[in-house]
Amino acid sequence: MKYGKYSQHINFMIKAVKIGEKIVNQNKFLRVIDKGEFDIVTNVDLEIEQAIIRDLGKIFPDIPIISEESCNGALASTCFVIDPVDGTKNFYHGTPIWGIQMAYIENGEPVASVLYCPEINLQVVAGAGIGAYSNGKKMYYEPKNLDHSMVCIDGPQCHRWNLSAFLDNQIQAIRILGSTCVGFAMVVSGQIDGYIYMCDHPWDLLPGLGACKNAGLYVYDNNKSMAIVANSARLLEFMKASVLEQLKK
Q1: DSSP codes of every residue in 19-60
Q2: Helix, strand, or coil (residue 107)
Q3: Cα–Cα distance list, 231 to 91, 149, 155, 219 (Å)
Q4: Could you tell me what percentage of the chain is helix, strand and coil, using 3-state DSSP and rounding each to the nearest 5?
Q5: Distance between CA atoms of 43 and 162, rounded to whole angstroms?
Q6: Is there a contact between 126 and 214 (Cβ–Cβ < 8 Å)?
Q7: Measured between alpha carbons, how far is 203 from 195 in angstroms, rounded to an integer?
Q8: Which CATH number among 3.60.20.30, 3.30.540.10, 3.90.1170.20, 1.20.120.450 corresponds to the domain 4-138?
Q9: Would you say 224 and 206 are in contact if contact means Cβ atoms under 8 Å apart?
């Protein structure tokens, strides 16, 4: 399929995340490595990452790669960003809320993204000049009233729980997912109305942030140090004010 100026990059990323799904299906046993307090990586994360990096090197040999597990240095102005399994804790526990995500960054901006959530059958493709597609359908948005809005939150425990408790009395529903890939994909696809991610890891943040921006959603990112995205200006301003107030505390 043609996706405008970044068709080559997007079509590669679509194939890459499918390769990731194939690796998941071929692995019957998980090996787990502790990365730090409450943080893990599995053999599947590493196998997917290595396969994508290998194939990227063949097609885009001159473009640097930033990836969570093995290539996590400084973000280049132009590069690919990879999260081989986003939501590893969910994946490890057999919870279907995880995904594989990639972005192509040009002049510091995510201009093309693919977010793929195999177990909930959700794929988002987005790019500069083409908008966003959810499972092949071009996306448009109709805002809801705050009391009919569902918002998902991810990020450091100290922030997400306090913010969830505060917002719970203000809007219809709050959910915590544990996967930015799923969270961003759901807001782009219209399954939720807003998403908050309070961290700046580029592999977690940039694929979904780029997808939301290119989809035409309302976005606040504070120089890419967090993401607050919504399908209406009113919901965005409400969430932004709530987040910034909670962060002061």
Answers
A1: HHHHHHHH--S--EEEEETTEEEEHHHHHHHHHHHHHHHHH-
A2: coil
A3: 28, 10, 20, 9
A4: 40, 30, 30
A5: 34
A6: yes
A7: 17
A8: 3.30.540.10
A9: yes
pLDDT class of 183 with cuts at 50, 70, 90: very high
Give the number of residues written for the chain: 249
User: For the chain, where are the alpha helices, taking DSSP H only?
Assistant: 7-26, 43-59, 88-92, 157-167, 180-188, 202-215, 233-248
Question: For the chain, what are the domain ranges?
Answer: 4-138, 146-248
Burial 205-235 (b: 16+ CB within 10 A, else e): bbbbbbbbbbbebbebbeeeebbbbbbbeeb
65, 103 in Cβ contact below 8 A? no
Model confidence pLDDT, tens digit, residues 33-66: 777 666 788 899 999 999 999 999 999 999 999 9
**Which pLDDT belongs to residue 74?**
80
Two tokens, residue 158: 């100290």
CA 249 to chain CA centroid, nearest Å: 27
Does the domain at 146-248 match CATH 3.40.190.80? Answer given as yes
